[in-house]
Amino acid sequence: MKNWKMALGVPLLFVMLYGCGSDKATDKTGDTTVKQEETDTNTNTDTNANTDTNTNTDTNKDMNNNGQAGTTENLPYNFAEFSLDVDYSPTESYEVDYENETTGVEVELDDDRNNVKLRGDEALSKLEPMFKKLKFDASTANDEVIDHVISVFGIDKNYTSFELEVKFADGTEKEYKKTK
After folding, report:
1. Over the stretch 11-66, which tens digit does the pLDDT of each residue have?
2. How many angstroms separate the CA atoms of 176 and 146, rounded?
3. 34-37: which pairs have CB atoms within 8 A and are 24 or more residues apart?
4. Given a cut of 90, is residue 180 above it in pLDDT?
5. Cys-Cys crosslink for 167: which of 37, 81, 96, 153, Cβ 3.0 to 4.6 Å?
């Protein structure tokens, strides 16, 4: 009985391996060829015979021209990236970094004056109310943006340098700088 299973199993295994060994599969019209992934270990020939040629279409239709996830409706704020660096002295600064990318959201808050270092959800919880108050866009005057951010974040006006980099939801990137 064991030899009988082995006698049928080995040739069947060779048939399946031979079928999977082909690098290309064609659709029903025979016009399109699709290279199979080498990491595919599924040997079910019925399932793999009809490879879907539109694997990237669904993923890419929610991407805008800058590789940013979704559109402005999918972002919680009018920006996808926000990087604020306010220096008070060579050893004291206030830094906020926010990135909303296709791989996820990264948030950091470093406040040397108050000895606060937050990452992830903790930082987002602290910063979210301030982010919601930010009501500027790429066409807003630079001085107006700087004054607005200083007001919203409660930045001490005794800073030595102010640097803000913003990537807006539409992909526009702007820098705002002010030195005292």
Report:
1. 655 555 555 554 444 444 444 433 433 334 343 434 343 333 333 333 333 333 33
2. 7
3. none
4. no
5. 81
